[in-house]
Protein backbone atom coordinates (compact mmCIF):
# COMPACT_ATOMS: atom_id res chain seq x y z
CA UNK A 1 0.00 0.00 0.00
CA UNK A 2 1.36 3.43 -0.90
CA UNK A 3 1.80 5.82 2.01
CA UNK A 4 -1.04 8.19 2.79
CA UNK A 5 -0.03 11.69 1.64
CA UNK A 6 0.06 14.47 4.20
CA UNK A 7 -2.83 16.90 4.18
CA UNK A 8 -1.66 20.21 2.72
CA UNK A 9 -4.32 22.21 4.50
CA UNK A 10 -3.46 24.57 7.31
CA UNK A 11 -5.60 23.97 10.39
CA UNK A 12 -3.39 25.48 13.06
CA UNK A 13 -3.44 29.24 12.47
CA UNK A 14 -4.19 31.48 15.39
CA UNK A 15 -7.85 32.51 15.16
CA UNK A 16 -8.63 35.88 13.60
CA UNK A 17 -11.85 37.81 13.92
CA UNK A 18 -13.25 35.87 10.95
CA UNK A 19 -12.37 32.46 12.39
CA UNK A 20 -14.25 30.28 14.77
CA UNK A 21 -13.12 27.13 16.50
CA UNK A 22 -14.64 23.88 15.20
CA UNK A 23 -14.67 21.14 17.74
CA UNK A 24 -13.90 17.85 16.06
CA UNK A 25 -12.90 19.44 12.76
CA UNK A 26 -9.21 19.84 13.50
CA UNK A 27 -8.81 23.47 14.37
CA UNK A 28 -9.79 26.96 13.32
CA UNK A 29 -10.92 28.05 9.89
CA UNK A 30 -12.64 31.09 8.35
CA UNK A 31 -16.29 31.34 9.32
CA UNK A 32 -17.47 31.22 5.70
CA UNK A 33 -16.21 27.64 5.34
CA UNK A 34 -18.69 25.17 6.83
CA UNK A 35 -17.79 22.02 8.73
CA UNK A 36 -18.95 20.07 5.68
CA UNK A 37 -16.63 22.14 3.44
CA UNK A 38 -13.67 21.42 5.71
CA UNK A 39 -14.41 17.71 5.84
CA UNK A 40 -14.58 17.48 2.05
CA UNK A 41 -11.45 19.63 1.63
CA UNK A 42 -9.55 17.31 3.95
CA UNK A 43 -10.71 14.26 1.97
CA UNK A 44 -9.62 15.89 -1.30
CA UNK A 45 -6.25 17.01 0.08
CA UNK A 46 -5.18 13.80 1.82
CA UNK A 47 -7.50 10.93 0.84
CA UNK A 48 -5.71 7.95 -0.69
CA UNK A 49 -6.54 7.32 -4.36
CA UNK A 50 -8.14 3.86 -4.56
CA UNK A 51 -9.77 3.93 -8.02
CA UNK A 52 -9.87 5.99 -11.20
CA UNK A 53 -12.35 6.48 -14.03
CA UNK A 54 -12.05 8.45 -17.26
CA UNK A 55 -14.74 11.01 -17.94
CA UNK A 56 -15.90 10.59 -21.57
CA UNK A 57 -15.20 13.56 -23.87
CA UNK A 58 -13.38 15.47 -21.14
CA UNK A 59 -9.72 14.95 -22.04
CA UNK A 60 -7.36 15.39 -19.12
CA UNK A 61 -9.97 14.85 -16.42
CA UNK A 62 -10.04 11.84 -14.08
CA UNK A 63 -12.58 10.91 -11.46
CA UNK A 64 -10.91 9.19 -8.52
CA UNK A 65 -12.24 7.33 -5.52
CA UNK A 66 -10.69 8.46 -2.24
CA UNK A 67 -10.15 6.68 1.05
CA UNK A 68 -10.17 9.09 3.96
CA UNK A 69 -7.30 8.98 6.43
CA UNK A 70 -8.25 6.68 9.28
CA UNK A 71 -10.86 4.71 7.34
CA UNK A 72 -10.54 0.93 7.49
CA UNK A 73 -9.50 -0.27 4.04
CA UNK A 74 -12.11 -2.99 3.88
CA UNK A 75 -14.89 -0.53 4.58
CA UNK A 76 -14.15 1.71 1.64
CA UNK A 77 -12.98 -0.48 -1.24
CA UNK A 78 -15.20 0.33 -4.24
CA UNK A 79 -17.62 -2.22 -5.61
CA UNK A 80 -17.04 -0.82 -9.08
CA UNK A 81 -16.12 2.36 -10.97
CA UNK A 82 -19.67 3.76 -10.68
CA UNK A 83 -20.61 2.55 -7.20
CA UNK A 84 -17.54 3.99 -5.47
CA UNK A 85 -18.75 7.59 -5.79
CA UNK A 86 -22.28 7.28 -4.44
CA UNK A 87 -21.02 7.76 -0.87
CA UNK A 88 -19.54 11.18 -1.66
CA UNK A 89 -15.90 10.07 -1.49
CA UNK A 90 -14.76 10.91 -5.00
CA UNK A 91 -13.04 13.83 -6.62
CA UNK A 92 -12.44 15.15 -10.13
CA UNK A 93 -8.77 15.79 -10.96
CA UNK A 94 -8.45 18.49 -13.60
CA UNK A 95 -5.61 20.10 -15.55
CA UNK A 96 -2.87 22.16 -13.87
CA UNK A 97 -4.15 25.15 -15.83
CA UNK A 98 -7.49 24.85 -14.04
CA UNK A 99 -6.03 25.74 -10.62
CA UNK A 100 -8.10 28.92 -10.65
CA UNK A 101 -11.06 26.67 -9.81
CA UNK A 102 -9.68 26.59 -6.27
CA UNK A 103 -9.72 30.40 -6.13
CA UNK A 104 -13.27 30.33 -7.50
CA UNK A 105 -14.39 28.02 -4.68
CA UNK A 106 -12.96 30.37 -2.05
CA UNK A 107 -14.50 33.41 -3.76
CA UNK A 108 -17.86 31.65 -3.74
CA UNK A 109 -17.62 31.03 0.01
CA UNK A 110 -16.23 34.48 0.91
CA UNK A 111 -19.20 36.07 -0.89
CA UNK A 112 -21.67 33.76 0.84
CA UNK A 113 -22.99 32.32 -2.43
CA UNK A 114 -22.32 28.68 -1.46
CA UNK A 115 -23.00 27.23 -4.89
CA UNK A 116 -19.58 25.83 -5.87
CA UNK A 117 -18.25 22.40 -4.97
CA UNK A 118 -15.25 22.17 -2.57
CA UNK A 119 -11.87 22.25 -4.31
CA UNK A 120 -8.22 22.10 -3.27
CA UNK A 121 -4.83 22.03 -4.98
CA UNK A 122 -2.84 18.81 -4.68
CA UNK A 123 0.28 17.10 -6.01
CA UNK A 124 -0.42 13.43 -6.72
CA UNK A 125 1.90 10.46 -6.22
CA UNK A 126 -0.45 7.48 -6.56
CA UNK A 127 0.75 4.62 -8.77
CA UNK A 128 -2.83 4.27 -10.02
CA UNK A 129 -2.60 7.56 -11.90
CA UNK A 130 -0.93 8.20 -15.29
CA UNK A 131 2.55 9.70 -15.13
CA UNK A 132 1.32 13.10 -16.35
CA UNK A 133 -0.72 13.34 -13.14
CA UNK A 134 2.25 12.55 -10.89
CA UNK A 135 4.95 14.76 -12.43
CA UNK A 136 4.97 17.11 -9.46
CA UNK A 137 2.64 19.77 -10.86
CA UNK A 138 -0.21 20.77 -8.55
CA UNK A 139 -3.65 20.08 -9.95
CA UNK A 140 -7.08 21.07 -8.73
CA UNK A 141 -9.26 18.30 -7.36
CA UNK A 142 -12.95 19.10 -7.03
CA UNK A 143 -15.42 17.17 -4.90
CA UNK A 144 -17.68 14.97 -7.01
CA UNK A 145 -21.36 15.48 -6.15
CA UNK A 146 -22.99 12.08 -6.70
CA UNK A 147 -26.47 13.46 -7.27
CA UNK A 148 -25.87 16.04 -10.00
CA UNK A 149 -28.78 15.82 -12.40
CA UNK A 150 -27.84 15.31 -16.05
CA UNK A 151 -29.97 15.23 -19.17
CA UNK A 152 -30.13 11.82 -20.82
CA UNK A 153 -29.21 13.40 -24.16
CA UNK A 154 -25.54 12.46 -24.66
CA UNK A 155 -25.03 15.66 -26.68
CA UNK A 156 -26.35 17.79 -23.82
CA UNK A 157 -25.38 15.87 -20.67
CA UNK A 158 -23.67 18.90 -19.07
CA UNK A 159 -27.06 20.39 -18.24
CA UNK A 160 -29.85 19.52 -15.85
CA UNK A 161 -32.30 21.19 -18.22
CA UNK A 162 -32.20 22.52 -21.76
CA UNK A 163 -32.43 26.30 -21.78
CA UNK A 164 -31.99 28.72 -24.66
CA UNK A 165 -30.81 32.31 -24.29
CA UNK A 166 -34.20 33.77 -25.25
CA UNK A 167 -36.01 31.46 -22.81
CA UNK A 168 -33.55 32.45 -20.11
CA UNK A 169 -34.12 36.16 -20.70
CA UNK A 170 -37.87 35.58 -20.58
CA UNK A 171 -37.53 33.77 -17.25
CA UNK A 172 -35.69 36.76 -15.79
CA UNK A 173 -38.57 39.14 -16.44
CA UNK A 174 -40.23 40.27 -13.16
CA UNK A 175 -43.59 38.89 -14.27
CA UNK A 176 -42.28 36.44 -16.82
CA UNK A 177 -43.23 32.77 -17.00
CA UNK A 178 -42.04 30.66 -14.10
CA UNK A 179 -41.76 27.59 -16.26
CA UNK A 180 -40.01 26.27 -19.34
CA UNK A 181 -42.05 23.85 -21.38
CA UNK A 182 -41.09 20.27 -20.68
CA UNK A 183 -38.22 21.14 -18.36
CA UNK A 184 -39.17 20.63 -14.74
CA UNK A 185 -35.63 21.20 -13.35
CA UNK A 186 -35.39 24.72 -14.80
CA UNK A 187 -38.85 25.68 -13.64
CA UNK A 188 -37.91 25.18 -9.99
CA UNK A 189 -34.88 27.52 -10.13
CA UNK A 190 -35.83 30.92 -8.60
CA UNK A 191 -34.63 34.18 -10.12
CA UNK A 192 -32.25 34.79 -7.22
CA UNK A 193 -30.16 31.83 -8.35
CA UNK A 194 -29.51 33.44 -11.72
CA UNK A 195 -28.46 36.65 -9.92
CA UNK A 196 -25.88 34.71 -7.90
CA UNK A 197 -24.62 33.02 -11.05
CA UNK A 198 -24.33 36.27 -13.01
CA UNK A 199 -22.41 38.00 -10.21
CA UNK A 200 -20.03 35.06 -9.81
CA UNK A 201 -19.43 34.62 -13.54
CA UNK A 202 -18.81 38.34 -14.07
CA UNK A 203 -16.13 38.49 -11.36
CA UNK A 204 -14.36 35.44 -12.79
CA UNK A 205 -15.31 36.14 -16.42
CA UNK A 206 -16.70 32.65 -16.87
CA UNK A 207 -18.24 32.78 -20.34
CA UNK A 208 -19.03 29.11 -20.86
CA UNK A 209 -22.35 29.05 -19.01
CA UNK A 210 -24.25 32.13 -20.11
CA UNK A 211 -22.28 33.18 -23.21
CA UNK A 212 -20.29 30.30 -24.65
CA UNK A 213 -20.56 32.05 -28.04
CA UNK A 214 -18.66 35.15 -26.83
CA UNK A 215 -21.48 37.42 -28.00
CA UNK A 216 -20.73 39.93 -25.24
CA UNK A 217 -17.22 40.87 -26.39
CA UNK A 218 -14.91 40.64 -29.40
CA UNK A 219 -13.04 37.36 -28.90
CA UNK A 220 -9.47 36.69 -29.96
CA UNK A 221 -9.02 34.17 -32.80
CA UNK A 222 -7.59 31.68 -30.28
CA UNK A 223 -10.80 31.61 -28.22
CA UNK A 224 -12.64 28.26 -28.37
CA UNK A 225 -15.83 30.10 -29.38
CA UNK A 226 -14.02 31.26 -32.54
CA UNK A 227 -12.15 28.02 -33.26
CA UNK A 228 -15.39 26.05 -32.90
CA UNK A 229 -17.26 28.59 -35.07
CA UNK A 230 -19.71 29.35 -32.27
CA UNK A 231 -19.26 33.12 -32.41
CA UNK A 232 -20.95 33.23 -35.82
CA UNK A 233 -24.23 32.14 -34.19
CA UNK A 234 -24.50 35.41 -32.27
CA UNK A 235 -26.41 36.80 -35.26
CA UNK A 236 -29.31 34.46 -34.45
CA UNK A 237 -30.21 34.60 -30.72
CA UNK A 238 -32.73 31.78 -31.18
CA UNK A 239 -29.82 29.37 -31.72
CA UNK A 240 -27.99 30.29 -28.50
CA UNK A 241 -28.18 27.89 -25.56
CA UNK A 242 -26.87 27.90 -21.99
CA UNK A 243 -24.52 25.17 -20.79
CA UNK A 244 -23.37 23.86 -17.40
CA UNK A 245 -26.77 24.70 -15.91
CA UNK A 246 -26.83 22.06 -13.20
CA UNK A 247 -28.74 21.24 -10.04
CA UNK A 248 -28.56 18.39 -7.56
CA UNK A 249 -31.45 15.97 -7.14
CA UNK A 250 -31.35 16.65 -3.41
CA UNK A 251 -31.69 20.45 -3.99
CA UNK A 252 -33.35 21.02 -7.39
CA UNK A 253 -34.00 24.72 -6.71
CA UNK A 254 -30.30 25.57 -6.22
CA UNK A 255 -27.82 25.90 -9.05
CA UNK A 256 -24.45 24.17 -8.78
CA UNK A 257 -21.52 26.11 -10.24
CA UNK A 258 -18.98 23.87 -12.04
CA UNK A 259 -16.02 24.54 -14.35
CA UNK A 260 -15.33 27.87 -12.67
CA UNK A 261 -11.72 28.59 -13.66
CA UNK A 262 -12.85 31.55 -15.75
CA UNK A 263 -10.43 33.97 -17.42
CA UNK A 264 -8.18 35.70 -14.90
CA UNK A 265 -6.23 37.39 -17.70
CA UNK A 266 -9.31 38.69 -19.55
CA UNK A 267 -8.67 42.41 -20.19
CA UNK A 268 -10.84 44.99 -18.47
CA UNK A 269 -11.71 46.72 -21.74
CA UNK A 270 -13.31 43.46 -22.90
CA UNK A 271 -15.31 42.62 -19.78
CA UNK A 272 -18.39 40.65 -20.77
CA UNK A 273 -21.42 42.60 -19.54
CA UNK A 274 -23.74 40.24 -21.41
CA UNK A 275 -23.35 37.95 -18.38
CA UNK A 276 -25.39 40.52 -16.43
CA UNK A 277 -28.12 41.00 -19.02
CA UNK A 278 -31.64 40.66 -17.61
CA UNK A 279 -30.50 40.65 -13.96
CA UNK A 280 -32.22 43.38 -11.93
CA UNK A 281 -31.09 42.53 -8.38
CA UNK A 282 -28.17 40.90 -6.59
CA UNK A 283 -27.73 39.14 -3.22
CA UNK A 284 -27.26 41.74 -0.49
CA UNK A 285 -24.63 39.81 1.47
CA UNK A 286 -22.38 39.39 -1.57
CA UNK A 287 -22.75 43.03 -2.63
CA UNK A 288 -21.94 44.14 0.92
CA UNK A 289 -18.73 42.06 0.81
CA UNK A 290 -17.75 43.64 -2.48
CA UNK A 291 -18.32 47.12 -1.03
CA UNK A 292 -16.42 46.42 2.18
CA UNK A 293 -12.99 47.10 0.70
CA UNK A 294 -11.79 43.85 2.31
CA UNK A 295 -12.35 41.38 -0.52
CA UNK A 296 -8.64 40.84 -1.18
CA UNK A 297 -7.72 40.35 2.47
CA UNK A 298 -10.60 37.93 3.04
CA UNK A 299 -9.63 35.91 -0.02
CA UNK A 300 -6.00 35.79 1.14
CA UNK A 301 -7.14 34.54 4.55
CA UNK A 302 -9.25 31.84 2.92
CA UNK A 303 -6.66 30.78 0.34
CA UNK A 304 -3.97 30.56 3.03
CA UNK A 305 -5.77 27.46 4.28
CA UNK A 306 -4.76 25.61 1.10
CA UNK A 307 -1.01 25.31 1.57
CA UNK A 308 -0.43 23.60 -1.78
CA UNK A 309 -2.13 26.37 -3.71
CA UNK A 310 -0.54 29.07 -1.56
CA UNK A 311 3.01 27.77 -2.06
CA UNK A 312 2.60 27.00 -5.76
CA UNK A 313 1.34 30.52 -6.49
CA UNK A 314 4.02 32.28 -4.48
CA UNK A 315 1.97 33.24 -1.44
CA UNK A 316 0.64 36.75 -0.95
CA UNK A 317 3.01 38.31 -3.47
CA UNK A 318 2.13 35.82 -6.20
CA UNK A 319 -1.61 35.90 -5.57
CA UNK A 320 -1.95 39.67 -5.18
CA UNK A 321 -2.15 40.57 -8.93
CA UNK A 322 -4.91 38.00 -9.44
CA UNK A 323 -6.88 39.23 -6.43
CA UNK A 324 -6.47 42.83 -7.56
CA UNK A 325 -8.04 41.83 -10.88
CA UNK A 326 -11.01 40.26 -9.09
CA UNK A 327 -11.35 43.33 -6.86
CA UNK A 328 -11.21 45.69 -9.84
CA UNK A 329 -14.00 43.71 -11.54
CA UNK A 330 -15.97 43.97 -8.30
CA UNK A 331 -15.69 47.76 -8.43
CA UNK A 332 -16.83 47.75 -12.06
CA UNK A 333 -19.81 45.60 -11.07
CA UNK A 334 -20.72 47.93 -8.20
CA UNK A 335 -20.59 50.88 -10.58
CA UNK A 336 -22.83 48.96 -13.00
CA UNK A 337 -25.34 48.29 -10.20
CA UNK A 338 -25.39 51.99 -9.28
CA UNK A 339 -25.66 53.28 -12.85
CA UNK A 340 -28.56 50.93 -13.65
CA UNK A 341 -30.36 51.52 -10.32
CA UNK A 342 -30.37 47.80 -9.56
CA UNK A 343 -31.51 46.51 -6.19
CA UNK A 344 -30.26 43.92 -3.71
CA UNK A 345 -32.24 41.14 -2.06
CA UNK A 346 -31.72 39.44 1.27
CA UNK A 347 -31.14 35.71 1.24
CA UNK A 348 -33.92 33.75 2.88
CA UNK A 349 -31.79 30.61 2.63
CA UNK A 350 -28.20 30.59 1.47
Summarize the entry for a quick read:
With 350 residues, this protein is α+β, with helices and mostly antiparallel strands. The protein has helices at 35-46, 73-76, 100-110, 165-171, 184-187, 191-204, 224-227, 284-291, 295-303, 307-312, 315-339, and strands at residues 19-22, 27-30, 48-54, 62-67, 90-93, 119-122, 139-143, 246-248, 251-256, 281-283, 343-345.
Explain how this protein is built.
A hairpin with a 2-residue loop joins strand 8 (about 245-250) and strand 9 (about 250-255). The protein is globular. It contains eleven helices and eleven strands. The strands form four sheets. The chain has a five-stranded antiparallel β-sheet, with helices on both faces. The protein has a two-stranded antiparallel ribbon with strand order 1-2. With about 350 residues, the chain is an alpha+beta fold. About 35% of the residues are buried.
Largest sheet: 5 strands, antiparallel
Number-wise, the strands total: 11
- What topology, given as strand order, has the largest sheet? 3-4-5-7-6
Instruction: Kindly name the structural category.
Output: alpha+beta
Could you give the order of the helices and strands? EEHEEHEHEEHHHHEEEHHHHE
Tell me the distance between the termini. 42 Å
Helix content: 25-40%
Question: Spans with pLDDT under 50 lasting ≥5 residues?
Answer: 21-27
Radius of gyration: 20 Å
**How big a fraction of the residues is strand?**
5-15%
Number of helices: 11
Shape: globular
Average predicted confidence as pLDDT: 87
Amino acid sequence: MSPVPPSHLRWDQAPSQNRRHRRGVAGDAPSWLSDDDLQKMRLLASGQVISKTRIPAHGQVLRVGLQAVGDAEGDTLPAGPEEDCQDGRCGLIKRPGDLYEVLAFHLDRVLGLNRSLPAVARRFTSHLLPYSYTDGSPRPIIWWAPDLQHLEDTNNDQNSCALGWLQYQEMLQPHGPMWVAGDTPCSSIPRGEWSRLALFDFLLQVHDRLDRYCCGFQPDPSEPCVEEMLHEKCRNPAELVLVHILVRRSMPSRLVFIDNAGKPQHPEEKLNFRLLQGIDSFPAAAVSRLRSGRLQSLLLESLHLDQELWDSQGGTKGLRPLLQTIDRRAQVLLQYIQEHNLTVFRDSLS
